[in-house]
Write a structure and sequence with these properties.
By secondary structure, this protein is α/β, with parallel strands linked by helices. It has two domains: 231 residues, 3-Layer(aba) Sandwich (Rossmann fold), CATH 3.40.50; 84 residues, formyl-coa transferase, domain 3 (2-Layer Sandwich). 39% of the residues lie in helices and 11% in strands. The chain is built from 16 helices and nine strands. The strands form two sheets. The chain has a six-stranded parallel β-sheet with strand order 3-2-1-4-5-6, with helices on both faces. A three-stranded antiparallel β-sheet has the order 7-8-9. Helix 3 packs across helix 9, helix 8 packs across helix 10 and helix 9 crosses helix 10. The longest helix is centred in the middle third of the chain and has 24 residues. The N terminus is likely disordered.
Length: 387
C-alpha cells in the first residue's frame, strides 16, 4: 500500500525545531544563515505536523487547538454514533453543535474510526503511521484492550509522539476511576486554599491546565525528535496538572504567614470593593509605594501607617465605606491617574476577546468551522491512500 505523502517543510532547516547546528552544516555564509533563521521564524512553527486527536470533551481538544494555532493539521478521530459527545450537549448554536465544542475544534477535520471493529483498528494503525502526534484521553489500559496500545503504535512508527491525558496520577489508588475537573481539583487540594468553605471553581482549571501542559509536552517532544529522530510518550494527568499550579501554595504550606494569603485578600489594599454604583473595583495596592499613593489620592494619609497592621479587617471596612461613596469608574480614573493599580471588575461581555495563544505564532487564523461528525472520513482515507 502506498504511503501518504507527508506534509513537511521543504527543507530540513525550516520550522522551529531544526537546531542552529544543523543549519550551520548547510550554510557557509553568515548572511544566508541569518536569512534562513528569519524565514523559519516567520512561518507557522508546526506547519507540516499532523496530529491525531482521539480525545473528547475539553482537555485534549484544548491541547490540540493550541497545536492548531501553531500551524499543525489536527484530525479528530471519533467513534461512530455520537462521536465526541460535547458536540451534542446543550446549549446548541446555529449549527446544532455546542459552542464550546465548535470553539475547541474549529479548523480540525473529523474521521470516524470504530475501534470495536478489526477494520477500524487497522485504519487507526495506518493513520498513526502517517501522523506525527497522537493524543488520547481514554482511561488507562483501554487502548491496550482494543489492541492498539500506544506502545504498539510507536513500535509501528518510532517517530510517533503519543500523549495520554488521564484523570488521576498513575500511582494513585484512583488511577482508573472516573472523574471530572471538580474531582481533580478536590483531590489536588485546590479547593481548600483558605479556611472558608470550599465552593465550585469558576473555571475548569484542571482541564485547561492539563491541555496546556499536554501541548507544551508535545512541543518539547517535537523539539527532541528533531535531534534524535525518535518519538516519545508524553503522559499528562489532570490531577497533577492542577497540582502543578499550586507550586507557591506548596512552598508556603507550613508557614504561619503566607504571601499567598495576601493574594487571596487578607490585605486591605488587595481586595475587591463594592462601589457606589454597585460595581466592584479591584484594588491591587500590594506594595507599600502603591499603598501610599492610594492613601494620598483618596485623602487618607493617616492610613499610610496602617500598611503592615496584622489585623486588616477594620482597615478594609473603612476602605469599603469610602469607596461606596462614588461610582467604580470614578475611583478607577482617580486612582489610575496616581499610578495606583486598580480596575473595574468587567463582565465577560465587557472584556476584550482574547486569542487562544497570547503570543504571535506565524499569524495562524483558524477560520474553518468545527467539523460535523465524520465529515472528512472519505476524503481523508482517499488523501492518505488508506484502502
Amino acid at each position: 500500500m502506498a504511503g501518504k505523502k507527508r506534509l513537511r517543510a521543504p527543507k530540513r532547516y525550516t520550522g522551529w525545531f531544526c537546531g542552529r547546528g544543523a543549519l550551520e552544516e548547510h550554510c557557509t555564509s553568515g548572511h544566508l544563515l541569518a536569512e534562513i533563521l528569519e524565514s523559519s521564524m516567520n512561518h507557522s512553527p508546526l506547519a507540516g505536523t499532523t496530529v491525531l486527536d482521539l480525545s473528547r470533551l475539553i482537555p485534549g481538544p484544548y491541547a490540540t487547538l493550541l497545536l492548531a494555532h501553531l500551524g499543525a493539521q489536527v484530525i479528530k478521530v471519533e467513534p461512530p454514533g455520537m462521536g465526541d459527545y460535547l458536540r451534542l450537549l446543550p446549549p446548541h448554536g446555529p449549527d446544532g453543535m455546542n459552542p464550546i465544542f465548535t470553539t475547541l475544534n474549529r479548523s480540525k477535520r473529523s474521521i470516524i474510526v470504530d475501534l470495536n471493529d478489526a477494520e477500524g483498528r487497522r485504519v487507526l494503525r495506518e493513520l498513526a503511521k502517517r501522523a506525527d502526534v497522537l493524543v488520547e484521553s481514554f482511561r488507562p489500559g483501554v487502548l491496550d484492550r482494543f489492541g492498539v496500545g500506544l506502545e504498539s503504535l510507536r513500535r509501528d512508527s518510532p517517530r510517533l509522539i503519543t500523549c495520554s491525558l488521564a484523570g488521576y496520577a498513575a500511582d494513585s489508588a484512583l488511577a482508573s476511576a472516573p472523574g471530572h475537573d471538580l474531582t481533580y481539583q478536590a483531590v489536588a487540594g485546590a479547593l481548600r486554599l483558605t479556611d472558608a468553605p470550599p465552593i465550585p471553581p469558576a473555571l475548569p482549571l484542571a482541564d485547561l491546565a492539563g491541555g496546556l501542559f499536554a501541548a507544551l509536552g508535545i512541543v518539547a517532544a517535537l523539539a527532541a525528535r528533531s535531534v534524535s529522530g525518535e518519538g516519545r510518550h508524553v503522559p499528562v494527568t489532570l490531577e497533577e496538572s492542577i497540582g502543578a499550579l499550586l507550586v507557591m501554595e506548596r512552598a508556603e504550606m507550613d508557614m504561619p504567614f503566607r504571601f499567598g494569603d495576601m493574594l487571596r485578600g487578607n490585605r486591605a489594599g488587595y481586595r475587591l470593593y463594592r462601589c457606589g454604583d454597585g460595581r466592584h473595583l479591584a484594588l491591587a495596592a500590594l506594595e507599600e509605594k502603591f499603598w501610599n499613593a492610594f492613601c494620598d489620592t483618596v485623602g487618607r494619609g493617616a492610613w499610610r501607617a496602617r500598611f503592615a497592621e496584622f489585623d486588616q479587617e477594620p482597615l478594609a471596612e473603612e476602605i469599603a465605606a469610602l469607596l461606596a461613596e462614588r461610582p467604580a469608574r470614578e475611583w478607577e480614573a482617580l486612582l489610575r491617574a496616581a499610578d495606583v493599580p486598580c480596575a473595574v471588575v468587567a463582565t465577560l461581555a465587557e472584556a476584550r476577546a482574547y486569542a487562544p495563544l497570547p503570543f504571535a505564532a506565524g499569524d495562524i487564523l483558524l477560520e474553518a468551522a468545527a467539523p460535523q461528525h465524520g465529515e472528512h472520513t472519505a476524503s481523508l482515507l482517499r488523501e492518505w491512500e488508506i484502502a
